[in-house]
Design a protein that fits this description.
Mean pLDDT of chain A: 74
Structural class of chain B: alpha+beta
Low-confidence stretches of chain B: 4-15
Number of helices of chain A: 6
Shape of chain B: globular
Number of strands of chain A: 10
Largest interface: A-B, 39 and 85 residues
Strand order of the largest sheet of chain A: 6-5-2-9
Radius of gyration of chain A: 22 Å
Oligomer: heterodimer
Number of domains of chain A: 1
Order of helices and strands of chain A: EEHHHEEEHEEEEHEH
Structural class of chain A: alpha+beta
Low-confidence stretches of chain A: 16-23
Mean pLDDT of chain B: 90
Helix content of chain B: 25-40%
Largest sheet of chain A: 4 strands, antiparallel
Number of helices of chain B: 10
Strand content of chain B: 15-25%
Distance between the termini of chain A: 28 Å
Chain lengths: ~200, ~400
């Protein structure tokens, strides 16, 4: 046969302009205050350390930065800021790990059963790596991510479902605030000619 | 359904000497309603029917495989061979009228082998003699949805209602191959969103882009749409969409030579945006490639003699000469001259970059329509075809799209 076997396709013909394929889905995440919190949940220490360090790395590049301690404390509270390289950042109040639901289930199973007295190793397919969490002065009992979106209450234990975009945000280095300078630099050539082909 | 190769083994000689057949057929009663429901809005364009299912063209399997599929593969390989030659040669870059500031960008994109998506050859083919290449549309080919999807649906429904025999086939695995190709390209751009882009107020282009976006989504690629005119540049010197998000991977249905000319052209060199089609494709959509093909592969059975301005005397004036601007699209600004007489001429504003001259070969004529055969390449392999019929000798953007089948 010289043709496609079937041609079923969700056609996007004439659909309006906008983001498609990026949904507002929910995702399972694990939120931990620190490594101890993580191990006591039933995850292997090695795995916990790995994610914690990953979050720490993200923290250094993503956390809001302030020129002075005072400015930082006005947002995050007294003694809630740290100095690194001459800049002030809020301390990392926790970290989150987004996981495939199966991986979480596996982790939970291992924790519940504790048959082999072996903790779960959160390996494999976590999407976005571990991300740092913060607690701001005005909203102290919620975790927020580096982009200042509320993630969940600090008291939430175990797997928490949060909106996908809160976990899977594109990490953008702070301090590089961009602005669109110009638009419309493409398309002029088309107005005078027919084309396509 | 399996296609019976009747006589293909025993008597190949016989089957090769019939033309393709034009068969009038009753159009499906509800095809316009179906088209509207799918969002296929350009089935009538500028008030004239664009999709025409009042007749179809019938081919044999050997015609397709021997005369279309195999030459398509061969010509595609020849084109890729030539990209290498052009990239290595400043003089050729100049002949192709590529502005010098973009040479490095094109070379880099070729040396990296930036993945490409698709292309279309236009052939002059009557079913008997070898198909002759009229031109290659390798940067912004359209009529994709009609070929890949709509024509397929037409056959499926005509077979299901018993109008066409159940073993009717079609040279058309375009959609299957497009999705496979997107899957392949996605591997190199795992973390990126693919932005689709075309100009405003072009229903046909929007249709093509929407269709490609559907295929990309099917392949699991996150997609977004931004009009060409809405693209901006931010303070970090990145292209951005209307939400000020960076465009780092972009399918544009917009010719490279226009991008070179546009205000943002000078920014292209500094950008890391991954383009579909990649910059090296600008060499292949260029009509100068026709002259270069003839130079490197003279007397190839699927080529027509073609020359640059300085060698046009080598063409036989009495057999007719076609004058094509290097950057022409949709058959604009083309002249056909035979024995000093102007046979046909199309309007347009192309030509300031120069012309090439190609031997004239009249398109086969069936019931007052001239037929051009568009053979699709997806990735690096032949994928299917679509026919366009036009009362004029030059197929322009108002020609009609007609379906085809393979029988026996």
């Amino acid at each position: 046969m010289k043709r496609s076997k079937q041609i079923k396709l969700t056609l996007m013909m004439g659909t309006s302009v906008g983001l498609i394929g990026c949904s507002d889905s929910e995702e399972s995440t694990l939120l931990f205050k620190d490594v101890d919190d993580c191990t006591s949940f039933g995850v292997e220490t090695e795995s916990c350390l790995f994610h914690y360090e990953q979050a720490q790395d993200q923290h250094l590049s993503e956390a809001p930065r302030y020129a002075t301690e005072q400015l930082c404390e006005s947002d995050f509270g007294y003694e809630r800021c740290e100095n690194n390289g001459g800049l002030w950042r809020p301390v990392m109040a926790g970290f989150m790990v987004a996981l495939l639901a199966e991986a979480v289930d596996e982790g939970l199973d291992a924790m519940k059963k504790r048959k082999k007295r072996k903790a779960a190793f959160l390996s494999g397919k976590y999407y976005s790596g571990a991300k740092p969490l913060y607690r701001s002065k005005d909203d102290f009992f919620n975790y927020r991510n580096a982009q200042n979106s509320v993630v969940a209450s600090v008291n939430s234990a175990g797997t928490t479902t949060v909106k996908s975009k809160i976990v899977n945000y594109k990490p953008k280095p702070s301090k590089t605030i961009t602005r669109t300078k110009s638009r419309g630099g493409f398309g002029r050539s088309a107005s005078s000619k027919s084309w396509g082909g | 359904m399996p296609v019976q190769k009747v006589g293909a083994v025993k008597a190949p000689f016989k089957t090769s000497h019939i033309t393709m057949i034009r068969v009038p057929i009753e159009p499906r009663a509800d095809w316009q309603a179906q088209a509207n429901a799918l969002g296929f809005k350009f089935h009538t364009m500028h008030g004239a029917p664009y999709w025409d299912e009042s007749a179809y063209y019938q081919f044999t399997l050997s015609q397709i495989e021997r005369d279309i599929e195999q030459p398509t593969q061969e010509l595609h390989d020849m084109l890729l061979y030539l990209v290498d030659k052009i990239c290595d040669d400043d003089e050729l870059m100049r002949r192709f009228a590529i502005p010098e500031p973009y040479w490095q960008m094109i070379r880099r994109s070729w040396l990296r082998r930036d993945p490409h998506l698709y292309g279309r050859f236009d052939f002059c083919y009557d079913g008997v003699s070898a198909a002759k290449l009229l031109e290659a549309n390798y940067d912004t080919p359209t009529s994709l949805f009609e070929s890949a999807y709509w024509q397929w649906m037409w056959l499926e429904q005509q077979v299901n209602t018993g109008v066409l025999p159940p073993h009717s086939d079609q040279f058309n695995s375009i959609q299957e191959q497009l999705i496979a190709r997107f899957l392949h390209i996605h591997k190199f751009n795992r973390t990126k969103t693919l932005h689709f882009s075309c100009c405003k107020e072009t229903e046909e282009d929007k249709g093509t882009v929407d269709y490609l976006r559907s295929c990309a989504l099917e392949a699991g690629i996150p997609c977004q749409f931004t009009f060409i005119e809405d693209i901006g540049i931010n303070t970090l010197q990145q292209f951005v969409d209307l939400n000020d998000k960076q465009i780092d991977w972009c399918f544009k249905l917009y010719p490279w030579e226009f991008m070179f000319d546009d205000e943002y052209g000078k920014s292209l060199n500094n950008m890391s945006t991954q383009w579909l089609e990649p910059a090296w494709k600008s060499l292949l959509s260029n009509k100068a490639i026709l002259a270069l093909l003839w130079q490197y592969f003279p007397n190839h059975p699927n080529l027509l003699p073609a020359y640059f301005d300085d060698q046009k005397h080598l063409l036989n004036k009495n057999k007719g000469i076609v004058k094509k601007p290097i950057f022409s699209r949709e058959g604009a600004s083309i002249e056909i001259i035979k024995a000093g007489k102007l046979l046909a001429k199309s309007s347009g504003e192309y030509g300031k970059e120069g012309f090439i001259y190609q031997a004239f070969k009249a398109l086969p004529k069936f019931a007052n329509e001239h037929v051009v055969l568009g053979s699709w390449v997806v990735g690096n392999s032949p994928a299917g075809m679509g026919l366009r019929a036009d009362p004029s000798l030059i197929t322009q953007d108002l020609s009609r799209f007609v379906p085809h089948i393979i029988l026996a």
